[in-house]
Write a structure and sequence with these properties.
It contains 13 helices and eleven strands. It has 338 residues and is α/β, with parallel strands linked by helices. α4 packs antiparallel against α11 and α6 crosses α12. 46% of the residues are buried. The structure holds 3-(1H-indol-3-yl)-2-oxopropanoic acid.
Amino acid sequence: MDRKEFFCTVLCLLFLATAVFTIPSNAKTIQLTYANFPPASTFPCIQMERWKKEVEKRTNNRVKVLTFPGGTLLGAKDMLRGVIQGQADIGCLCMAYQPGVFPLTTVIGLPLGFKDAKTASLVLWEIYNKYRPKEFSKVKVITLFTSAPSNIMSKVPIRSLKDLKGLELRASGTASKILELLGATPVSMPMSETPEAIQKGIVKGLLSSLEVLKDLNFAAYCPYETITNFQVYPFAVVMNKQKWNSLPKQVKEVINSMSKEQAAWTGEYMDNHVKEAIQFARQKYNAKLFHFSKQDSIKAKKLCKKVILDWKKMAVKSSIPADKVLEDVYAFKAKYEH
Ligand code: 3IO
């Protein structure tokens, strides 16, 4: 062949090589949309970005995750339905926001004495894995985790149960029931609606984990924190079932291999971040921390027992082996507490 033919051939080969190596791999990129309800600064979104980064890395960028924090794709109470309907491929939801919808896994949100989010997150994962409850049968569960134990953040100091009487505090699910039993006036709403309620003075504070003092700047409004460690809020990250079924085997394996790891990572991130947020609130807003007296702590614990009994009654009605589930929760709790 002459020079011209030679260059033509080289060019053709180059073109073919480019086509073979780039076009098909681009075409095979799998995009997943991931919806989240609270602002990007908060822990459900921090764990979402970590998951995105790890999944993209571990699939060699075959999967691309598009994240939507702050309710930009789906709001707090639309999450499960939105994922089932395919408005988002993945969604992060808080089980406490839809009472009755997650009868088995809300066992983790009872006042059982969890001391940290890592333990509670791992126990939640184990319980889900063991029972595979039908409350998640319409979706694929990607991971599960919890907040750190809840404390009271308020505009007024709360040093005793007496100080709680009639006080409007924002909470959700089991946390709202606990406040009611202790004589406060719970106002239930998702975290995403809470900044406005606090700023407008609709509520005098909230019951949740303390990292929001920093992440949502609640320390500016609630400089009084009462350490109660009542309960944790359980969360689930779920995927549309059809989308899940359409994924290649290797991608499914990467995602499945990350479920428990992501639960532990998120719990650990949360536990460390709570400490940072308390420091932040103390330094920047001169926050004060209170504890109930021994008597009030015992009294609060006794009053809280009713929510455990109520859960049992509800669970039995839903054909859940309530005693066995609780027994397993306590056993896993003992295993993961150090
Ligand atoms: C929570 C929810 C969204 C963003 C940050 C958060 N920290 C603790 C929670 C727990 C929860 O769902 C709630 O509503 O208190």
